[in-house]
Amino acid sequence: MRLFHTSDWHLGQNLHGQDRDFEHACFLSWLLARLAEHTPDVLLIAGDIFDTVNPPVKAQERLYDFIVSAHEQQPKLTIVMIAGNHDSGSRIELPAPLMRRLRTHALGRVLWLDDGQLDAERLLIPLPDAKGKTVAWCLALPFLRPAEVTGAHLGDDYLRGIGQVHERLIEAANAKRKKGQALIAISHAHMAGGSVSEDSERSLIIGNAEALPASLFGHDISYVALGHLHKPQRVNSEERIRYCGSPIPLSFSEIGYQHQILDVTLKGETLVSVEPILIPRAVNLQRIGPLPLADILAQLADLADIDLLADTQRQPWLEVRVTLDEPQPDLRQQIETALQGKSVRLVRIAAEYAGSGSRHGDDDSGLIELDQLTPLELFSRAWQENYGSEADEQTLKDFAVLLQEVQLEGEQP
Ligand SMILES: [Mn+2]
Fold it and tell me: Which segments of the protein form a coiled coil according to its record (predicted)?
């Protein structure tokens, strides 16, 4: 059995207001070509399919067009996708009856039976090989919000609740599997020890307190396809517990590594190999600075001139970081003038003041812009300013829960 492991597509994302649709379109046509070339049995999408709970229509068209094209190209391909923390679980599941006809399984929520037990049946997906024989079971673990795993069923502890959902599902899968059938888990979660990117993953609940232990996935699970962290990595150096990372850099802090999907081969229950397939970058993200303005202007002057015959959609996105001694009212104008006729698309200017203390992110960043702060950080700062003390942990937790409710607003039909 052969699987493609992908995650964190973030369809519909924009980068400081710039649309990424062209890059997503390039990725999806590249992925279709790799599916044709390698003919895996299964394609996994481990959450954050969309960037927001209310994705633009064009992003939804991208997903459904892709699924139909993949099915037409390879009618025997099974696709399994789960909701991530950026997705709306109910939105992901909405077209499930249609998608089942395309051998595509979309899981966005967990449900509970009348007796209070986890409905494990709907989260267990048989994975057939090319001959139609079930050779493995997929355990689908969509991202779970606190309200879904705490309360009557499992008590109030979020992590313990999630742990119990995992245990019950693995138990049910073990009861169901026949000898020789592999178990493959797909989950959108922050595993302890993972390396986090600077500003695009959005904390699941609070900081790292939410990280799950890899021991949740015992050795009866042959492979764990994870989503959430955008940098490809193993968990605890284990070959079988992996993040494949996002297909495109979602922020300027994610440009320093090669984006990829993982090509996973199993023989029976044994994991044979996990090979990365590198994704070509359709559009470069370029960072200049942090440097004083004069040096920045000199570097901008050296950028390539616009080639009138070239595709403007392929022009790099540019972030400029300027260090200043004092505010420079015509900063944007100077930079924009220097960029006239240059083959780049400016997305962001960050002004950083030399000598000011930094509380956030890189050591070289001084001035913080609003969009560099998470809502939780902003709340903490406002609390500090109003009350002169740090907000306590319970207050931060309550804020995080309210924040999630706001982020989900408008999701209900
Ligand atoms: Mn993500």
Answer: none
Ligand 1 centroid, distance to 331 Cα (angstroms): 33
Domain residues for the domain of 393 are 285-408
Same domain, 265 and 292: no
Do 107 and 182 lie in one domain? The reply is yes
The alpha carbon of 227 and the centre of ligand 1 are apart by a number of angstroms equal to 7
User: What mean pLDDT comes out for the span 158-187?
Assistant: 91
How many domains would you assign to the chain? 2
pLDDT of residue 357: 47
Tell me how far the alpha carbon of residue 34 lies from the centroid of ligand 1, in angstroms: 22
State mean pLDDT over 259-275: 97
CA of 72 to the centre of ligand 1 (A): 28
The per-residue pLDDT for 358 is 41
For residues 117 and 143, is the Cβ–Cβ distance under 8 A? no
Under 8 Å CB-to-CB from 339, ≥6 apart: which residues? Answer: 300, 303, 318, 346
Same domain? For 224 and 352 the reply is no
Rounded distance between C-alpha atoms, residue 166 and residue 35, angstroms: 30
